[in-house]
Amino acid sequence: MIKAILTDIEGTTTSLSFVKDVLFPYADQHIAEFVTQYANRPEVASLIEQACQEPDAECDADDLASVIKQLRTWIATDKKVTSLKALQGLLWENAYQQGDFTGHIYPDAASVLRHWHEQGLKLYVYSSGSVQAQYLLFYYSDFGDLTTLFSGYFDTKVGHKRESASYQTIAKLINSEPESILFLSDIHEELDAAAQAGLKTCCLVREKQSLLGLTHTWVSDFTHINLKNY
Predict the structure, then answer these.
(1) Helix axis angle, 82-97 relative to 131-139, nearest 10°?
(2) Which domains does the chain have, with CATH numbers?
């Protein structure tokens, strides 16, 4: 019996275009201004230090121009760097507060997540974006504040999404047996890793991604997920 839902964001609850055409370009356009303005803030300074300590980093924390260049390179390639994701979260917080945009959530996702919450299921989020960025997207969503639906948020601090150990860690942290957790994602490799850890899985096929080689149950939206089948 499924007792907890662990959901991805991009391509699952939220359109790929919102992330790629709104959030990432905004970060790219404003990261230089943000880093320059807030570099002396302890939280930002710490994240800059962490970024420059990455194995492939080509920047010096004392040289903001090199830091900004590195961050923009990672943004352009969607590099899964925890410090970058945290900095983006801080930057997007300002944007949400200023009303520059709201967080896109598919209507079916908002409706079904509310229904599951009302049924007593525990809902969690696991995304490559920082926990702060996840929270902000749901707090400033098109459907208002949805953060009260979730019992927890996880990012790459628990491990990368294509590694089975990450899902084992999450299961332990939420005190649930892996087989009682349903993981939702649009990425085959993430679903494979979750399944290897013992979680139940369901693929969201919202865009025109290939079904070739897919070994997981798939649906076109949240309304077609039948928890009785797991």
Answers:
(1) 20
(2) 4-16+103-229 (3.40.50.1000), 18-97 (1.10.720)
